[in-house]
Amino acid sequence: MTDDALLALARALDAQDPLARHLSAFAEAPGVDAYLDGNSLGRPLAATPERIAAFVREDWGTRLIRSWDEQWIELPMRLGDRIAEVALGASAGQTVVADSTSVLLYKLIRGAMAHDPGRTEIVIEAGNFPTDRFIADGVAAEVGAVVRRLDPDPVRGVTVEELGDVLSDRTALVVLSQVDYRSGALADMRAITAAVHDAGALVLWDLCHSVGVVPIELDASGVDLAVGCTYKYLNGGPGSPAFAYVRSGLQPSFRQPIHGWWSAADIFAMGPEYAPASGIRQLLSGTPPVLSMLAMQGMLDLIAESGIEAVRAKSVSLTDFAVRAYDELLVPLGVRLLSPRDAARRGGHVTIGHPDFRDVTQRLWADGVIPDFRFPDGIRLGLSPLSTSHEETLRGVLAVRDALAG
Ligand SMILES: *Cc1c(COP(=O)(O)O)cnc(C)c1O
Fold first, then answer.
1. Where is the signal peptide (predicted)?
2. Is 232 a catalytic residue?
């Protein structure tokens, strides 16, 4: 296929895209030709600057400390419920916004290890995101547990069969990512959760690379625990807080380890002893970062308006088109596909590999084409569905081709 034919195809797909009208909802980025890193840092909405300015003027500047009573105290739970409703397939009262993903991983893994002290093993993927592995290792050292590592094919991801080989009556907790941050492999949440439960263990799903792009059914899948980022596909901005989910049936017996005044039954009792809150607020520890919770609210509205199924349909169309462009333009240059070819097994990004990609990425960034580089030689094309067009995707793949060829 010629470049022109690919361009015509991209434009035809954009013309049919029912969500294309939302592209203009995002702030312009002068000098950026293709932003293909929305899976690491989502773009700001055009409305975000005014949202933040109005907050400073009114909620903070005028209502002042009265805003805590009027709206901020409940915000971590209200926003958690909103994420749950729009993107997690979870009913209210199970999700809270707080901390970073790393800190919430600590709270949930530590809490899970205290849940059934007779069980002493944590199962995690050897290739899981570093913070997930490091925190599991740290908790294991703290409580005298053993970490068992799964080492599945990195492009295919974890299967129920492989998991079956390591599960036993010693397994306390299994920590997995729904979408692999490198390959984009999409795990079978429902089947894996059922297998973990058959072994009598708890499961903790990391949703950082799936929330806002892949439909998730936490309640229907029977998931125990989950965490996720809000600065990737939820466009909350750099360092926006994470969210944690604890299944309602588990909450009465679940205790997280960082007991702060915000975890307590009565925040303002100021009493001598700690008593945990009965609901999901127990997951909080200290004062929530209200300012950092603003930007994601606009994105959640946009996803709700679009419908997560439609967002997923566009995501599949974008990643399928990226693979098509890869086949046409990059296979002849010796580039490898490091993501599943079958869209049903893939999340929102496509990873490709070539020994020159470290240098290529530096040149692309200088030219305003922004994918990201993952060691040792992968480029991830992160195609955030609401802010990315097929034509922009093609500009990115053409730029990779030109940088390799030139
Ligand atoms: C992005 C990401 C994180 C990030 O954790 P932070 O505490 O927000 O830095 C953690 N786990 C996975 C799988 C991720 O993709």
1. none
2. yes
Return the residue matching tokens 């893939």. 346
C-alpha of residue 195 to centroid of ligand 1, in Å: 25
Reported as a single tens digit per residue, the pLDDT across 98-135 is 999 999 999 999 999 999 989 999 999 999 999 999 99
CA distances (Å), origin 43, targets 24, 82, 183, 187, 237: 12, 20, 22, 26, 8
Contacts of 93 (CB under 8 A, 6+ apart): 77, 81, 248, 279, 280
Reported as a pLDDT band with limits 50, 70 and 90, residue 343 is very high
Residue with tokens 């990201």: 372
**Tens of pLDDT, residues 47-87:** 999 999 999 999 999 999 999 999 999 999 999 999 999 99
Binding site membership of 380 for ligand 1 (Cβ less than 6 Å):
no
What does pTM read for this prediction?
0.98
Nearest to 354 by CA among 404, 405, 406: 404
3-class SS of residue 375: coil
- Ligand 1 pocket residue status of 101, Cβ below 6 Å: yes
Q: Which of 75, 127, 129, 79 is nearest to 102 (CA)?
A: 129
Question: Which among 132, 206, 224, 372 is annotated as catalytic?
Answer: 206
**CA dihedral sign of residues 235, 83, 312, 124:** positive
CA 265 to chain centre: 30
Calculate ∠ Cα 215-247-212, nearest 5°. 20
Residue showing tokens 């349909």: 313
The residue whose CB lies within 8 Å of the most ligand 1 atoms, and thus the one to mutate among 179, 213, 229, 380, is 229
Distance CA 362, CA 269 (A): 54
| CB 208 less than 6 A from any atom of ligand 1 | yes
pLDDT digits (tens, 9 = 90+) for 149-201: 999 998 999 999 999 999 999 999 999 999 999 999 999 999 999 999 999 99
